[in-house]
Each structure stands twice: as structure tokens, then as C-alpha cells.
């Protein structure tokens, strides 16, 4: 009962944070903006994310079908992603810098689950906050819901037995940064530099993103360590149900 109330209090706090995050903000910052990518690229990314989305749906059903506690924990992870990725700072024209929050979910539920969570989060942000877009949903999901989570998951699995705290920090921070590496490459492929081509364009985008994204990634890493520590103390049974050595 105490664990349930603790989780309920977390969700209430997250809900309040969401309200503060979205209330008086002007929606000029975006992932990749609506209409910013040509139709062929939009279609390409939608097709690309489909296999990950399907595997993610199956993974969620398998893990939560008989466990209400895990559904609550997954809702918490989704709310965490929504809040962090809604805190945007304008960066490259047609895009923005912001934390992603996907590292926490990738560690707990696996990377494919975060593809599904990212689709839901990005869809709500596009409809409610004008943050991102419907036509660019596939492209934004690829960078934030596939590249970021897989990097986070891989780093955590590689380092967790050596230093768990460092593994969580680097998992969240580098997952965040690689989301923007992917976004930079996506933009460079569509808008190559006239003289230097895709590589020069990607380098330019990365240089602009780095100014705001590196500090944000560090902050996200620290915050994820704190949140994960809280979850590991108050949701031990839920983590055991996932069958991972947390």
C-alpha cells in the first residue's frame, strides 16, 4: 500500500510539472517541425519505425498483461518522457534542443518499449503543444524513440556491472546526445551543404546543437540517476517482475 501511495504521489508531482511546463509557453520550439521534411522522407521514416513499434507493442503486452503495478510504472516513465521533452529551447531553425527522458525507460523496460512511448508522447505534443508535427512524427520517433533508447540500453548493459550509477548517468546523457546526432544527420540528408555536402551540413547542425544540448544531457543524466534511485527503492517488486538485475 505504501509503495502504491508513493507511486501515486510521484504521478501527481509529474502531472503538476506538466501543467507548469505547458501553461504559459509559446510553442515556437519543435523537434522537427510540421512540413519541414519532404514527403518522401516522411514516408521513409514512418516505414522505418514500424518494425520497432510492433516489437515494442508486443513487449509491453507481455510485461504488463498480468501486472497492474508495471502498468503504473510504465505510465510514470511515459510522463517523465513527456515532461522532459516538452522543456524545449529553440536551436536549429525548424528544430529545438531539449532533454528526452528516454534513457530511464530504456533501462527499465527496454529500447523497443520506448519507441511506443515516444510515438504517444510525440503525438500528444504535436496535437496539444504544436511541438513537432504529424508528418514528421516518424522522423522524430526514429531519433528520440529508436536511436536514443538503443544507445541508452547498450551503454547501461555494458557498464552496469562495473559502476551502476555511472552506467545510468552515461546511459541517459549519451542517449540524449545521440538523439541529436541522429536529428542532425536527418536534417543534413535533406538539406546538404552546397559545397561540403551532407557531412559538412551534419557538422554544422551538430555544432549548433552542442551549445545547448551538452549541458542539457548532463542535467538529464544527473536527474535520471536520482529518479532511478527513487524507483529502485520504492518499486522493488515491480523491477523484480521485469526479470532484470537492477
TrEMBL record:
Q: Which GO BP terms, alphabetically?
A: cobalamin biosynthetic process
Give the keywords, sorted.
Cell membrane, Cobalamin biosynthesis, Cobalt, Cobalt transport, Ion transport, Membrane, Signal, Transmembrane, Transmembrane helix, Transport
Does the keyword Nucleotide-binding feature in the UniProt annotation?
Answer: no
Q: Name one GO cellular component term.
A: ATP-binding cassette (ABC) transporter complex
GO MF, one example: cobalt ion transmembrane transporter activity
Q: Which residues cross the membrane?
A: 39-60, 72-90, 102-130, 137-159, 165-191, 203-228
Q: Annotated pathway, please?
A: Cofactor biosynthesis; adenosylcobalamin biosynthesis
Q: What is the superkingdom listed in this entry's lineage? A: Bacteria
- The answer to whether the entry has keyword Cell membrane is yes
Give the bilayer topology: Multi-pass membrane protein
Q: Where in the cell is it found?
A: Cell inner membrane; Cell membrane
Coarsely, its chief localization is membrane
Provide the family line: Belongs to the CbiM family.
User: What exactly does this protein do?
Assistant: Part of the energy-coupling factor (ECF) transporter complex CbiMNOQ involved in cobalt import.
* Assembly with partners or alone: Forms an energy-coupling factor (ECF) transporter complex composed of an ATP-binding protein (A component, CbiO), a transmembrane protein (T component, CbiQ) and 2 possible substrate-capture proteins (S components, CbiM and CbiN) of unknown stoichimetry.
Q: What is this protein identified as?
A: Cobalt transport protein CbiM
Species whose genome carries this gene = Clostridium fallax
Q: Which gene encodes it?
A: cbiM
